[in-house]
Amino acid sequence: MSEALANLLNETRQFPPPAELAANANVTAVAYEEAAGDRLAFWERQAGRLAWAQPWEQVLDWSNAPFAKWFTGGRLNVAYNCLDRHVEAGLGDKVAIHWEGEPGDTRTVTYADLHRLTCQAANALTELGVTAGDRVAIYLPMIPEAAVAMLACARIGATHSVVFGGFSADALTNRIQDASAKVVITADGGFRRGKPSALKPTVDEAVANCPSVEHVLVVRRTGEEVAWSAKDHWWHETVETASPEHEAQAFDAEHPLFILYTSGTTARPKGILHTTGGYLTQASYTTHAVFDLKPETDVYWCTADIGWVTGHSYIVYGPLSNGATQVMYEGTPDTPHKGRFWEVVDKYKVTILYTAPTLIRTMMKWGEDIPAGYDLSSLRLLGSVGEPINPEAWIWYRQHVGRGELPVVDTWWQTETGAIMISPLPGVTEAKPGSAMGPLPGIVADVVDDQGQSVPNGGGGYLVLTEPWPSMLRTIWGDDDRFLETYWSRFGAGANLGDEWVYFAGDGAKKDDDGHIWLLGRVDDVMLVSGHNISTTEVESALVSHPSVAEAAVVGATDPTTGQAIVAFAIPRGSAETSGEQGEQLIAELRNHVAKALGPIAKPRQIMLVPELPKTRSGKIMRRLLRDVAENRSLGDVTTLQDSSVMDLISSGMSGGK
Ligand code: 6R9
């Protein structure tokens, strides 16, 4: 990393936990010591937070590394842990899900309701011939049935593969085929941006090319007409008429729980496989530890979609295994108005909010007057996930959503890690805006150089995980070689360093002088300018720290003199003037602002003021497309783009030059 860029490390603001939270925190600093003393004993205690039908014999079997087995010999049922045990403890009437449809319709689903529906769905799936080990694809909007479908699969030992409802027929086809799914669970559609958005036609198109699919279960949500075939069954005629009696059977700790495909931008998507005991242990523990969840009093809301890993671990398995009350919202944040999220927080008195930097930056762009119009006083903890959060966005979140008081937990993890790995603990850590701080108790992470050598404080390189963890991916579905190659072979031919297996996360990172970790984006997004490594994240953060910029994306474009040159795309905040003379002035000011913050080497060659940025459907910026624009190429594959009109907007609405 270039020394000129040591600047982000000069972010010196630090925020200790509120005294009251620290005094009552679920997890205190002792956890770090306990885990450091005996990591496996620590995880064994966390596994003990769950109900096991049969205890494990060995905590970790690493004899066939890097193919891990956790809690070997143990048996449990995931749905039993998320539902039955709460109902048996007398919490049947407790609200599990306050569901809010986009049009404003609502449902209150108690633990007893969720249990009954899950038992019915388990019986219906069994009736359709699904048995333990079969794969079931789930392609649903954000309705309670999405959680029910997942839990019903878990209950009968079927492996679910949730495909995000925004994906195309091709993407769905590939995923169904890769896993040879036997059943697809879908809906007629869902509501998005104020109107029904159909799902069933996409499934029909996919199923036509997927001979493995024997049945399609269809939830009625929008009431729109759908085509019907012999494989189709209405959910309300099949599930809701099935018996509500179902005894959950225990499965092996290593029984496959789900496959989730990572949204590879270029390559074939990877089916990340997660199993039962270790996954639930860590999803459950991290919900308890990182969100300080108090199931009796908290109202938790994670704004992710169930189609992403965040929805799996922090809407379904983590919160429900802890007996939480949560909000589930079907739609978009600006339908019917830009205050919709804050209206939901206010209405349900949400106490814990977990969202993504892309949303926070969007809210910044819309202006702080919008959250100021709602009563957000119920909130007590804020979380962020999905991308590096720029220090200014972090501060904005704390200031305008968190009353300038609330802890913000910046949680780093991946589909592959299954659960949160690096994050502040809200009752312990003095958080620095923009840093995920350090690994959680029981997790060992490091930043290493090209040779895999640990870098000293102040240094930068690649983020690695040096010890196995309970919710780690077990393999890539059907492709052990690719699993070894992608995650375990970065450093050296033997795929490992000495006898230590090192997991390569694919993210750039650095350690500050205190040893705290700063994530710098995917390593593919690091630019090489005149021989200096410059991270896109750092330049983006510098831009966002200017009062006129709400969001920025930075790419390296081929340059005859410098190798790569920095090209930035910036969305102005609120009322900033962007055209003509004033626009030019703003651009000049921004270029100087970056040079001042990070050093002259990081001064962008070009800044374009744009109305929008291209994002994947999970909200991550697609820098690849911006590189196409910056290098005047025609656009590559745009199928994973959330809104394809964005690229037209960018190309036509671009202002700015050198
Ligand atoms: C949970 C999730 C994983 C990638 C990961 C990294 C980025 C996620 C982050 C973060 C910086 C954070 N990422 N959280 N970067 N700070 N707090 O998003 O999973 O969709 O698989 O993406 O997201 O680049 O490698 P997934």
List the helices and strands and how they pair.
Layout: H1 19-24, H2 30-37, H3 39-47, E1 58-61, E2 69-72, E3 75-76, H4 78-91, E4 95-100, E5 106-110, H5 111-127, E6 135-139, H6 144-156, E7 159-162, H7 169-179, E8 183-187, E9 189-192, E10 195-198, H8 200-207, E11 215-219, E12 232-234, H9 235-238, E13 251-252, E14 256-262, E15 270-275, H10 277-290, E16 299-302, H11 309-321, E17 325-329, H12 340-348, E18 352-355, H13 357-366, H14 369-372, E19 381-384, H15 391-401, E20 408-410, E21 445-448, E22 460-465, E23 475-476, H16 480-488, E24 503-511, E25 517-522, E26 526-529, E27 532-535, H17 536-544, E28 549-559, E29 563-572, H18 580-598, E30 606-609, H19 623-630, H20 645-653
Parallel strand pairs: 4-17, 6-7, 6-8, 7-14, 8-11, 11-12, 16-17, 16-18, 18-19, 19-20, 29-30
Antiparallel strand pairs: 1-2, 3-13, 4-5, 9-10, 14-15, 15-23, 21-22, 22-24, 24-25, 26-27, 28-29
Helix pairs in contact: 2-3, 4-5, 4-6, 4-11, 5-6, 7-8, 10-11, 13-15, 17-18
Organism: Micromonospora marina
Binding site for ATP: 386-388, 410-415, 507, 522
GO cellular component, one term: cytosol
Low-confidence stretches: 1-7, 653-658
Radius of gyration: 24 Å
Mean pLDDT: 92
Count of helical regions = 20
By secondary-structure content and strand pairing, the structural class works out as alpha/beta
**How would the global form be characterised?**
globular
How many E-type strands?
30
Order of strands, widest sheet = 12-11-8-6-7-14-15-23
Helix content: 25-40%
> What characterizes the major β-sheet?
8 strands, mixed
CATH architecture identity of the domain at 530-654: 2-Layer Sandwich
- In CATH, the homologous superfamily of the domain at 530-654 goes by the name ANL, C-terminal domain
Distance between the termini: 25 Å
Which ions, cofactors or small ligands are bound in this entry?
A: ligand 6R9
Strand content: 15-25%
CATH uppermost class of the domain at 530-654:
Alpha Beta
